[in-house]
Structures are given as structure tokens and as C-alpha cells.
Amino acid sequence: MSIKDTKIDTNQLKLNVKSLKRRPSWIKISAPGGEKYNDLIGLMRSKNLHTVCEEAQCPNIGECWGAGTATFMMMGKICTRSCGFCDVMTGRPSPLDWNEPHRIALAVKEMNLNHAVITSVNRDELSDGGAPLFARVIQEIREHQPGCSIEVLIPDFKGSLSSLKTVMDARPEILNHNVETVQRLFKKVQPQDDYEWAKTVLINAKNMDKDVLTKTGIMVGLGETITEIKDTISEIRSWGVNILTVGQYLQPSRKHLPIERYYTIDEFNEIKLYAKECLRFDWVECAPLVRSSYRAERQVRALSTLYKKLY
User: Fold this and answer.
1) Contact residues for 42 (Cβ-Cβ < 8 A; gap 6+)
2) Nearest to residue 169, comparing CAs of 200, 198, 204, 144?
3) Which of 45, 54, 206, 284 could potentially form a cystine with 275 if both were Cys, beta carbons 3.0 to 4.6 Å apart?
4) Fold type of domain 30-304
5) First vs last Cα of the chain: how many Å apart?
6) ∠ Cα 301 302 305 (to 5°)
7) CA 61 – CA 70 distance, rounded (Å)
8) CA pair distance 139, 142, nearest whole angstrom
9) Which residues contact residue 162 at a Cβ distance below 8 angstroms, ignoring those fewer than 6 apart?
């Protein structure tokens, strides 16, 4: 290869890097606002609550909050892990607030929610990972907002069966844990996590309660191939997972993992078709701005008849 050829390749590489920084036309994020959005901000602040919508800079915050829905984040806003894609703060968390589940339940009642989504930061300094707080918030919501279905997006609890059982015994309608990426990139994306822990959570949740809807999600654009995506979601389906979400990774800041590429709408449609028609997931949300709890209420309502759930 000549020096001239090398120069051309280098310039092309610079062009590609610059193009990755520009979001394509099909990724459009509306600025949040409106009466419901502002009311929800006031409600969260008045009850000293956190949402993953804010902490993780979710691109759908305007749509979801404008519709009066949000994903509550328990156990503070400081996480013990430092995943390469996540904008939640890493550090030493404060002690657990055992009154937090009660305040969340009151917020759910005040919002008159039909479906509540609850998640948390990782609390690896706790032997149980904070699992009892998930059980308590489920119980509190049942008491204060009867008929409201509940989705919990839980940590992996380092694969602990006892912690998972604590959550499952409270009978959430949906048990969600995100795999996030393909196995080859797992440690790069989530250095303190383990693929086997994610697998253990999702398989054993279904083993503990065959009626629970299990759910997981992955991001694309971190350097995986279409073949790897299909292999990963095929394995996930073999674990008995019912609901799958797939969305485009968007870099929260320069310190986070770079975007390797943006997937096209056609590619998202290809992945969705494969997941629905070939793998027979019960529900698939697959589009650039899809995130874990996006349109979660539609999922549980549509599948409730299929699984004969009572809400």
C-alpha cells in the first residue's frame, strides 16, 4: 500500500468518526414540556423521589411524562457500578430509605396509574442487593392503588436466588432485567456485571412463577453485528422471556462508550420481524428510541388475557 493510499484511508476514517456524531434524521427527540410534565416534576420533588427517566437521560421523557407516566428509581441516585453506557452517578450510596416504597405508592395513587414501573440503582454493598425494598414497594402499591399492575426492573443481585425469590414472592406482573448487549461485548459495556447473572435472573424468575411475564432489553450501536443480535435474542427467547425491547444506544457524554454506528429503520424492522415471526416473542418493541419501560402499560394489558392475569 502506498503512502498516498494510507492518507486517503485516514481521511475517510476521520469522515466516518465525524458522521457518527451527527444523529440521523430518523432520531428526533422532542424537548420535554407541558402541563403534565411540569406537574410530574412537582410531584416527584414533593415526595423526594427519583426517576430513571431523569437520571439516565431517557430520550422519551417528554412523551412519557407528558402522558403522566414515569419509571420510579429506588434506593437513591448513586449506583455502586459504573457501566459504560449509563449516566447514573457512581459512588458510595446513602443508607436505604425504608419509607421510600410508601412515598412511591402515594405518588402512584395520586397519578392514578394503571401500571407502575419500579427500578433501582445497583446496591452491591448490601448482601441482599436491596431486594426487600422491591417486595415492599409492590405491597405498598397493591394497598394504595388496587388494580394497578406492577413491573419491576431489577438488578441482577449477583445471581442470588434468595434475593430474586424475595421479589418474586411479592408477585409482580412483569419481572424485567436488561441483558443490555451481546455476550461478546458484555464485559466492555458492563464491567462489573456478569452475563450468567442476567441469565440466572431471567430463567429462575420464570421457574419461580410460571405466570409472571419476563422481559429484557438490549441496545444496538455498540459494535455488535446483526448476526450477534439475532443469536443473542434467540438465546434470550430460549430462557422463556416473553417481552423484548431493542433500541439505539445514544452516548450520554464524551466519557461514555462511543456510538459505533446508528442502525437504520429497515434494520430495526428486520430485527423486530425476526424476534416476532421467527422467535415468537409475545411482545417486541424495536425502534431507535425504544427504552426498557417504553409503552410498558400497553404490553401488560395486551398480554394479560393471554396469561389469564387478574388486575
Assistant:
1) none
2) 204
3) 284
4) TIM Barrel (3.20.20)
5) 67
6) 85
7) 8
8) 5
9) 128
CA of 108: how far to CAs of 43, 68, 169, in Å?
Answer: 10, 10, 21
Bridge pairing between strands 283-286 and 78-79: unpaired
Amino acid symbol at 29 = I
- CB 209, CB 203: distance < 8 Å: no
**pTM, rounded to two decimals:** 0.83
283-286 and 243-248: which strand pairing? parallel
Please report the sign of the dihedral spanned by the C-alpha atoms of residue 158, residue 162, residue 166, residue 172: positive
∠ CA 177-42-55, rounded to 5°: 35
- Per DSSP, the residues of 200-232 read HHHHHHHHH-TTSEEEEEEEE-SS--HHHHHHH
Give domain limits for the chain: 30-304
Cell numbers 399492575 correspond to what residue? 149
Encode pLDDT of 173-215 as tens digits.
Answer: 999 999 999 999 999 999 999 999 999 999 999 999 998 999 9
The per-residue pLDDT for range 134-172, each reduced to its tens digit, is: 999 999 999 999 988 899 999 999 999 999 999 999 999
> What residues pair up with 107 in beta bridges, in sequence order?
none
Integer CA distances (angstroms), 88 to 51, 70, 116, 220, in order: 11, 16, 21, 19
Mean pLDDT value of segment 7-14: 37
Which grid cell is 153?
Answer: 426492573
CA distance 110 to 49: 14
Q: What is the dihedral of CA 224, 200, 302, 145, to 10 degrees?
A: -120
Cβ atoms of residues 258 and 251 within 8 Å? yes
Beta strands in 121-223 (DSSP E): 149-153, 174-176, 213-220
Predicted confidence (pLDDT) per residue in 245-260, tens digit: 999 999 888 899 999 9
